[in-house]
Prior knowledge:
Structural class of chain B: alpha+beta
Number of strands of chain B: 5
Shape of chain B: globular
Shape of chain A: globular
Largest interface: A-B, 27 and 31 residues
Oligomer: heterodimer
Radius of gyration of chain B: 16 Å
Number of strands of chain A: 7
Radius of gyration of chain A: 13 Å
Order of helices and strands of chain A: EEEHEEHEHEH
Amino acid sequence: xxxxxTTRNDALVVTALMPRIDAAIAIQFKDGMRDACxxxxxxVVLDLGSVDFIDSSGLGAIVATMKxxxxxxxxxxxxLSDTVDKVFRLTRMDSVFxxxxxADAAFSDAAKAS
Amino acid sequence: xxxQTQSYNQPLTFAIPSTEMAVRNGLxxxxxxxxxxxxxxxxxxTIELVLAEVxxxxxxxxxxxxxxGVIELSIQPKERGLYCTFHDTGHPMPDGAVPLGNLSxxxxxxxxxxxxxxxxFLIRDLARDxxxxxxxxxxxxxxxxxxxxxxxxxx
Lengths: 114, 155
């Protein structure tokens, strides 16, 4: 699974390197996210900057990941392409996640909030 | 350019095996063919999403017990958008009708959030004139994706 992890300001940043999160890889994505986040910090930022396309199976896998991580870890999203953003908005899942314009913004937002 | 656009007098047709990877490849082929229409970039995202959701449903439900099914897709660009027709010979839709695809409220506890059921909601939201019939053991689903096509593309 093409997931790259880095630690930043006590948060885990997971960068999805695949161009699509669709029905063909939804289950592997969920498993990969669980492994990547296992035992990690409470705050997880998933950077979707390389992802051009997501379908309802991919959306379901991201929601499932958030449910797997809760209550000890919280999943946030960053860098949604227009098409990916549209899927979250239409299904109203944009109200469920903290969504940041970029991974950098995820940390400047947090700085402003504190 | 005129030579390229003449092909749209005939529908674009695709025969896609009923596996998730074949659907991915079929989508790429369909979108590549439609690129000649020069639609705005965001329209291609919508088109790909609708086609993906329909084909994923056919793979997961109609052809639930076989990987040897075939999904036939025909796309006819017209002035009012892309007229899409899907044929498959898998199981009929439950109750002989397209699922409602109601969206459940996201304002619930995290544990209760839905992980599925978004597919038909997205299809119903993004497609127009959605119709389903079962005929001679074949599922036929038709709809229109309301994209604006430049007039000269269709002449």
